[in-house]
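User: We ran a pulldown and think these components assemble together. Before we commit to crystallization trials, I'd like a predicted model of the whole complex to look at. Sequences follow.
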Amino acid sequence: MREAMYYQLHGQSVICSLCPKKCVIAEGRTGFCRVRKNIGNKLYTGNYAACSSCALDPIEKKPLYHFYPGSLILSLGTWGCNFSCTFCQNWQIAQASPSTRSVMPEQAVEMAKQYVSKGNIGIAYTYSEPSVWYEYVLDTAVAAGCAGLKNVLVTNGFINPEPLLALLPYIDALNIDVKAFNNEFYNTVCAGSLSSVKRTVELAAKASHVEITTLLVPGLNDDMTEIERLAQWLAGINPNIPLHFSRYFPNHKMDVPPTPESTMTMAQQVATQYLDYVYLGNMSGEDGNTYCPQCRQLVIDRSRFNSYLVDQNKCPQCGNIINIIGEASF
Ligand SMILES: [Zn+2]
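Assistant: Here's a predicted model for the assembly, 330 residues in total across the polymer chains.
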């Protein structure tokens, strides 16, 4: 166990200030995340270097479509979460206690370096919530950055500004879940808050490459006026932030039917009025292609693994610069 960062003494307890929940944790107890534990009025992190999943994944699977397209990334996950989403798609590792193996930061970096010849660009902290893996992610990201590797965070964005700002200089790209654009959904379905997640997106977009994912669940967050407000807010930060709508399938404790494909396409149409790049995920026949927002020319064909971008990611037809970080490696 490692001593945790970001906590204060509070009488006979400690207050964890890593995430907006600010759990007051009594001696011998853990916070909501089940990971951070008070032992003798010191806060310890129970998942440092505890790796539950490890795989070399396509970057598109994170999903990141505008960051080194076609590359691979060593993806690591742990356990624990500061949300308790009833529709959790990764609940076996996030909400249960999976078996783990120890992968110290320097081992993770060595592994990532070994895969570079296979197309690996770095390390993604994903599968479970990396906010509650904070100390390990920070140490590993610093070491990976020194080794010339990229760091990617796939997160729910529920973290306080101080720890976020301390981590962001080492993070090259983030996919942040905006689970709904209404606070009631965050309160009742996730045990979180929308305002904290919005703040994370706004801060992260100033520092790193950001893409957003919204899992559309029928009747809960698929109202088109709500989707319009989400797209308007994102466009206010930057209209070229890619937005991924992901199709919901029954999972964990939620048992509503899958999101109709028509809802998905409608959401894409609504959001495209404000945003340059809107993608649909978990859909049959969805190509995930990137089109130039100016002239609609196909610029990245993900079904054929082909990029048509010309010098420094310009559209071959109209010369518009497509917001892509790094070269495509198809
Ligand atoms: Zn164009």
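Helices lie at 91-94, 105-114, 134-146, 161-167, 183-190, 194-207, 224-237, 261-272. That may be worth checking against your pulldown data before setting up trials.

User: Thanks, that helps.
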